[in-house]
Amino acid sequence: MKQRIGTFENPIKLVSESVPRRLLLAHSKNTSIGVFDFHSLPDFGEDIFIRNVLFNGHLTLQEVKLAIYFFEELSDGGKVFSTSLSEFCPALVYGDVIELNGDYFDCLVIGSEDSFEQEIFDSNDGYYPSLSMLTTIMGMKLTSQGLTNLVRRLHDFGYITVTDITATNTYSSPNPNSTKKERARLRHIRLCNGMRQKDMSNRWLPKRRKKTKKTINSK
């Protein structure tokens, strides 16, 4: 029997905010050769996340809408979302149970990368907010892979940091060096502090226009 993940004994380990951001490096003026370091930029003095979204010409409309949603939803801290299109009850697969005043609640336990403290994410009767449902309300018609790609691109641009709720991302990972990908049906998402504190509005490279093929009319 597989060990349950997201429990007090086997909590989820958050992905570090300092992981490389592929699209941020590809579409911005790097702070040094091949490296982007938010710490090298001065603080703006107020939350500049939305400005950093709107001035990035490499984002699609769907990505802009989802980034703004995350800004509003995650301003006070990260949350756990379901990214599965099919309906399933995460409490049957992941997490632990806590008791409070005689009542029992299903939850996910997530550890901090900086300390031994653990954060508890209560579920709603065993469920977490569905990103598929939320994006549908926003007018997006996405496949499971399309939704995952959308979230992953915002991560790769540095707007959010995504942690897949899988056995690999636990403190007692069975094989941390395994190249085998696990299917993630839940994801912890938090805003990237760099995008909230540093002004990126003038650091985005211009978007290249696609070359159009010239046709020669024959007489």
Characterization of this structure:
This protein has six helices and seven strands. With 219 residues, it is an alpha+beta fold. The strands form two sheets. Strands 1, 3, 4 and 5 form a four-stranded mixed beta sheet that branches. It has a three-stranded antiparallel beta sheet with strand order 2-7-6. A hairpin with a 6-residue loop joins strand 4 and strand 5 (118-122). The chain is globular, with a radius of gyration of 20 Å. The model has no long low-confidence stretch (mean pLDDT 90).
Beta-strand residue percentage: 15-25%
Q: In terms of per-residue confidence, which ranges show pLDDT below 50 for 5 or more consecutive residues?
A: none
Distance between the termini: 75 Å
Structural class: alpha+beta
Helix percentage range = 10-25%
| Elements, N to C (H/E) | EHHHEEEEHHEEH
Q: Specify the oligomeric state.
A: single chain
Q: Summarize the biggest pleated sheet.
A: 4 strands, mixed
Provide the gyration radius in Å: 20 Å
Overall mean pLDDT: 90
Helix count, per DSSP? 6
Shape: globular
Number of strands: 7
Structural key phrases:
globular; about 20% helix; three-stranded antiparallel sheet; 7 strands; about 220 residues; alpha+beta; 6 helices; four-stranded mixed sheet
What are the SSEs and their pairings?
Blueprint: E1 12-13, H1 22-26, H2 49-54, H3 61-73, E2 79-82, E3 96-100, E4 103-111, E5 118-122, H4 131-137, H5 144-156, E6 160-164, E7 186-191, H6 193-197
Parallel strand pairs: 1-4
Antiparallel strand pairs: 2-7, 3-4, 4-5, 6-7
Helix pairs in contact: 3-5
